[in-house]
Amino acid sequence: MAGTTRAEKDQHRREKKLRRGFGRLAALGAILALGGLVGLVYTGVATLTSMLLFGWLLLICGVVGLLHAVESRGSNFFWLAVVVAALNIAAGAVVIRYPETTAEGLTMFAALLFLTGGLFRLVGSVVVRGPQFGWTLVQGAFGLLLGVLVLADWPDSSLYVLGTFFSLALLFDGLGLIAIGVGGRRVVSMVTEQPVDRGDRGTRENADKSAETIDQAKRAEGDSDQSHN
Predict the structure, then answer these.
(1) I want to staple 158 with a disulfide (CB 3.0 to 4.6 A). Which of 31, 63, 104, 148 is the partner?
(2) What pTM was computed for the model?
(3) Do 159 and 49 meet the contact criterion of CB atoms below 8 Å apart?
(4) For the CA atoms of 166, 170, 175, 179, what is the dihedral angle to 10 degrees?
(5) What is the spatial distance between Cα 167 and Cα 107, in angstroms, rounded to a whole number?
(6) Residue among 218, 166, 220 nearest 52 (CA)
């Protein structure tokens, strides 16, 4: 009984820990989704925020890369690592210093990517005509149209394009984390309830088998008494 009680306590502690972990994951998803919704409302602020985060990410990666290069200065790729780290640091400093200009440049780059990707999809769908012809054609037309719209409103489009993409990414990532957290808590509750049901079912089956055995024994005794008489 003491061993069973201890095992049940350990299992209950693990279940509680898992539920708490999935709950934190769902809470993080809710924060990200809320940030995405706020970013969709204030796209200009979201654009500047994404640029600053991108700049600091480049700066931190450059510093870490430089420290790693100094630690491995005896290797053959020392100077290459130093150059890459220095470029990251310089790019991060420029992005942090001029976030609006960086947003304009990245918006132009994104529009060109949309244009080239949409054009290649359109041409490829017409030339190949595979089983996904209609879907590829729609994707290419949508990418081409999106690139044209972004370029038509450039550089004003740089104030909301990147912020909209950044906010949508936060929103969908948050919704995904919420789904994982809620689903994980449900799975944990189902798994914890399942052994109890199996135990009850097994107890009932054993009781039924015992009752059948007792009935068979009584019938055998009755048959033996009748044969003696």
Answers:
(1) 104
(2) 0.61
(3) no
(4) 130
(5) 15
(6) 166
